[in-house]
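FIELD: query
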Amino acid sequence: MLDPLSKADRYRKEAAKCYELAKSASPPFLSGFYRRIAVQCLFMAERELKLAERQHSATSHDNDG
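FIELD: result
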């Protein structure tokens, strides 16, 4: 299982790919489709980053005492 930071990175890379596909998509309706997927991937990356922060905070807090 991938850690949250790795997942976030993977989602950001997929978002970039979808954004590039959106720029040259034909027929035009596919451009919007790819852009929506890119945005969704960015939201998923953000969720993974927040999860990583919570895990780091919990680990740091557990180590404090």
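FIELD: remark
The chain has a mean pLDDT of 92.
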